[in-house]
Design brief:
The chain contains three helices and four strands. By secondary structure, it is α+β, with helices and mostly antiparallel strands. It has a single domain (about 1-90), classed as Aldehyde Dehydrogenase, Chain A, domain 2, CATH 3.40.309.10. Strands 1-4 form a two-stranded antiparallel sheet. A two-stranded parallel ribbon has the order 2-3. Strand 2, helix 2 (about 45) and strand 3 (about 60) form a beta-alpha-beta unit.
Length: about 100
């Protein structure tokens, strides 16, 4: 489905069937974008060991991808530049300089 390969903003919810968690990860990562992924499951303990394999900037378990001022929010791949919100977002606007005097 094109909606699964593009970055779509709006009231769109594709439903994709998969056989196992590895196939779900492959389907999710098979795009040039990576803003966020929502995973709905009754077994939250088991899914925690796989969240690092998803190539998205944000992973939401049993909730929809959304921004919160307390959490850093960012995409990866072709989904935006840098972080926003939280202390991490503020640090994106700071230019640190190293000065060395001998």
């Amino acid at each position: 489905m094109p909606v699964c390969k593009e970055e779509v903003f709006g009231p769109v919810l594709p439903i994709v069937l998969f056989r196992n968690i590895q196939e779900a990860i492959e389907i999710s990562n098979n795009t040039n974008f990576g803003l966020g992924v929502s995973i709905f499951t009754k077994d939250t303990e088991s899914i925690e060991k796989y969240v690092g394999e998803f190539e998205e900037g944000c992973v939401f378990i049993n909730d929809f991808v959304k921004s919160d001022p307390h959490l850093p929010f960012r995409g990866v791949k072709r989904s935006g530049y840098g972080r926003e919100l939280s202390k991490d977002g503020i640090m994106e606007f700071i230019n640190k300089k190293t000065i060395f005097i001998k």
